[in-house]
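Reviewer 2 asked us to include a model.

Predict the structure of this chain.
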Amino acid sequence: MREAMDSAPARLLDHLPAVFRAADTSGELRRLLAAFEGVLFGDGDPDRPGIEEQVDAIPRHIAPLPGPGMDGMACPDRFLPWLAEWVAFTPHALFAPRALRRIVAGIVPLYSWRGTRVYLEHLLRLCFEEIDAVAIDEAPGAGLRLGQARIGMDSLLGTDSPFRFRVVLGLQGAEPVPAGFESRVRAIIDFARPAHTAYELAFGSPAQAWRGDDDAEWQG
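Predicted model (structure tokens):
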């Protein structure tokens, strides 16, 4: 052990003034500093990384997806919920690690649109690869529409519906809607919508839903 310490590169010793280096004829100062070098710089054992190696690993631990200079590595799965909270994505428990990595990596540029239709459209597509089309009507019609109105479902008598919008989602060949999918979609809409608003959710063709066709499955 002593021979290994004597032969190891003396990084700390080399930074001392020459008078101290010349005075270390016994090698005791070199061996003393070698203990600190093992803590600071590591001793080559991957199970005992030095502080320098741990600091170098910080970019990887806060990167949801591999980036330049990361050798194809990103943060461990156990760090993803913590990273999601950093970007204020509170529904992170609804998503598996692969999906959560994609969401965390792409959500920050959307925040300049928060509270808008554009934000909700992009967020739904980012969160759910199953979604093929998103249509949001910020002023859904109220009242009776001849040939289209369904009493008790999409019609109101003598009133309007302020601060209400309608979301219609088209899925990629998913018929019927997968179990549990609607509740996850609603969690994202509740996360993204302004607190004073209410909404209707439908699955089907957005074009058909705007015409009032029966092919859209309404969930008011």
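The CA atoms of residues 117 and 136 lie 7 Å apart. Strands lie at 131-137, 164-171, 198-203, 217-219. We have added this to the supplementary material.
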